[in-house]
Amino acid sequence: MEERSGLLEIKAWFGHAGAGSDELQDWDKEDFNCCNWGYSVACDSTTNRVIGLHLSGVNDGALGKDLYLNASLFLPFNELEYLDLSQNHLVCGLKNQGTIGLRGLRKLEVLYLGSSDFKENILLESLGGLPSLKTLSASGSKFEGKHFGKGLCNSTSLEEMYLQDSSLPASFLGNIGTTLKVLSLTGVDFHGTSPAQGWCELKNLERLYLGRNNLKGVLPPCLGNLSSLICLDLSDNQFEGNIAFSHLSHLPQLEDLSISNNYFQVPVSFGSFMNLSNLKHIECDNNELVPASSFQPSVPKLQLRFFSASRCTSKLLNDGFPSFLHSQSDLVFVDLSHNKFNGEPFPSWLVENNTKLNELYLRNTSFIGPLQLPQNPRPNLETIDLHASKENRELFNILSGN
Description:
Elements: H1 2-16, E1 41-43, E2 50-54, E3 67-68, E4 82-84, E5 90-92, H2 100-103, E6 110-112, E7 117-118, H3 122-127, E8 135-137, E9 142-143, E10 160-162, E11 182-184, E12 207-209, E13 216-217, E14 231-233, E15 238-242, E16 256-258, E17 263-267, E18 281-283, E19 288-290, E20 306-308, E21 333-335, H4 348-353, E22 359-361, E23 383-385, H5 390-400
Parallel strand pairs: 2-4, 3-5, 4-6, 5-7, 6-8, 7-9, 8-10, 10-11, 11-12, 12-14, 13-15, 14-16, 15-17, 16-18, 17-19, 18-20, 20-21, 21-22, 22-23
Antiparallel strand pairs: 1-2
């Protein structure tokens, strides 16, 4: 009965903002079993206690009217494991908002507060005391306090934090603790200042997303100490330097590397990456391919499935195609479009060596010499894109039978 009354109070709270008439219409005073109140209320099948509240966007259509969080409304739900309050124009963190209501949710594992306005840090600091909280998402939010979520550094359970497209102070990394495995900061506004400290302490990170942040300069060497990283996205920034000396090759678990649209120098040999046996996906479009030693281990461990390096040569590259591709046999996708390789024939060996190849893009990449095609059928090969240059058009006509 206490949870049922609590849900009706939450409905009234939304109602004061002019919201919830459609989304919460199943919250019926006449139905005493609140577990029957639609998808927005999830209950434990054994105890019938409320364990999930899906309240995203209830206030989204209320003419954009701010909804001031009253966290004490959630006091009755001490079995709650999942709470989604995103897309509700929430104003959070004020002193009179009863943050003790959220601190009482000791079983809460997942909390969504996306598109909220955190006027102060009181709410975030209180979240550091939630012993079960594993996932916090506050994407598209504004954080106006000087010290982002200082209490979060006390969390021993928080594993995933999604803050993409938010506005954050540059000092926030020092306040989020070291237990994180996933940190998404794509499109974050750092108020013109790149975070200078805090990277080296996030040693448990498995996935780090830093795309679209206007970050500049060389990569901090301590990125090479994040030995658990599986996925790293640095795309759409202004990083520079030769990636062979960036310590990225010191990440033994790395599977997915995205560095497109920067000012990196990318050696055609990829020599420093040849021992990364887990690396399967590289995107390095719109950087600069540069000559490098062609030395490779006799048995290179690197076997990619996806490789994209389009628009990486502003002038003729005498080294030709990235030499490491000769050792690859598991490729499914390759894009080397809009590059100026000097004196290269069509790479039939690339198709011959990779029987799983599905898509090959070589737009505006001129070839010389005879146009030789693989002798054996390739049933997995669906696309060869060779448009633009005269030589490529000739090959395209041969492939199409025209």
